[in-house]
Amino acid sequence: MAYDEHLAERVRDLLSGQIEAEKKMFGGLAFMVEGRMACCVSGQGGLLIKVGRDAYPELVELDHVEPMTMRDTVSDSWVQVGDAALSDERALRAWLDRGLAANPPKPRP
């Protein structure tokens, strides 16, 4: 399944001026900001977002949020956020901000 081009465009708009690269990975399109993956527009729908191990248990209990699963491996720090939880720009911005906060920039040499 191809990733949602409309969602990718919304991410581009909200991260305008911050995106260093876009990379096809995880069956979708990942957006790189400050040397880290800000999010990935998933080929299975919605976004893949790093939330960290501390926030993970609470967030996977929310509607339209599931653990990220790759093959048979279930992540304990990444979630898949369904399209219904990304219905407006405020909601999408909140998830993008959460992902950036949980995935700090890598030190530059």
Give the oligomeric state of the chains in this entry, treating copies of one chain as homo and distinct chains as hetero.
Answer: single chain
Q: Total domains, how many?
A: 1
Compute the number of strand runs.
Answer: 6
Shape: globular
* Distinct helical segment count: 3
Order of helices and strands: HEEEEHEEH
Residue ranges: pLDDT <50 for 5 or more in a row? none
Q: Determine the fraction of residues in helical runs and give it as a percent range.
A: 25-40%
Strand content: 25-35%
Identify the strand order in the major beta sheet.
Answer: 1-2-3-4-6-5
Radius of gyration: 13 Å
* Major sheet attributes: 6 strands, antiparallel
| Sheet/helix structural class | alpha+beta
Q: Note the gap between the termini.
A: 38 Å
Question: What does this entry show, briefly?
Answer:
The protein has 109 residues and is an alpha+beta fold. It has helices at 5-14, 56-59, 89-102; strands spanning 19-25, 28-33, 36-41, 47-50, 65-70, 73-81. A six-stranded antiparallel β-sheet has the order 1-2-3-4-6-5.
